From TrEMBL:
Molecular function via GO: transaminase activity
Residue intervals passing through the bilayer: none
InterPro entries, A to Z: Aminotrans_IV, Aminotransferase-like, BCAT-like_C, BCAT-like_N
Record-linked Pfam families: Aminotran_4
This protein's name: Aminotransferase class IV
Highest taxon listed in the record's lineage: Bacteria
Species of the source: Neolewinella lacunae
UniProt keyword list: Aminotransferase, Transferase
């Protein structure tokens, strides 16, 4: 399993949300193992006092590996809408083989916007929010309930909604959101940048 934690100027972002997800996953897969304290894992990684980093924490019964990686937001200017009915990603797995297979079908687009049984889910690395001119909505059934998504829902910045593929024309914009992308910094595209 995996957690990707945003570290900016030595400070971990959304740590309580990461801890909740890690605890939930470990209760499901390794209920008898001792707790993992992510605050301690972050401290032991000794993040630099300046700069933006991704702390990648691989775990199972215990923390297996940590890696602190300088991070830059990659530009995303187009998405290919693709069915991904075969993907199961309810926990954040380190093995992303099925998602990589879906990405291989993106053609000239920068990323994929996946759907399952006709309902929008996520891109290959982010949850999404769609703007209808008044409100931002996120798919009610994402592949993974991301930490940033959970935080934005709790704050009322986005609303969960059932969004079908065919509903895309009702929206003006789509924004990518994940732990590494604060709301204001998530790549935001016009809805016509989604290739159907």
């Amino acid at each position: 399993m995996l957690e990707s934690i945003r570290i900016l100027d030595g400070q971990a972002d959304l740590l309580a949300y990461h801890q909740q997800r890690l605890d939930r996953t470990r209760r499901a897969f390794w209920p008898k193992c001792p707790a993992i304290d992510l605050a301690r894992v972050v401290a032991e990684a000794s993040p630099p006092a300046r700069g933006l980093f991704k702390l990648r924490v691989e775990y199972g019964e215990r923390v297996r590996k940590t890696e602190l990686i300088p991070y830059q937001v990659l530009p995303v200017t187009s998405l290919r809408l693709l069915p991904a009915d075969e993907i199961r990603y309810g926990s954040k797995f380190a093995d992303r083989t099925a998602i990589r297979r879906c990405l291989e079908r993106k053609g000239s687009c920068d990323d994929v916007l996946m759907s399952q049984r006709g309902y929008l889910t996520d891109t290959s690395y982010a949850n999404v929010a769609l703007f209808d001119g008044r409100h931002w909505y996120t798919p009610a059934w994402p592949l993974l309930r991301g930490t940033r998504r959970e935080s934005l829902l709790e704050k009322g910045i986005i609303r969960a909604s059932i969004i079908r593929d065919r509903d895309l024309p009702q929206f003006q914009k789509i924004r990518l959101i994940n732990a590494m992308l604060p709301w204001e910094e998530g790549p935001t595209l016009d809805i016509n940048a989604v290739m159907v």
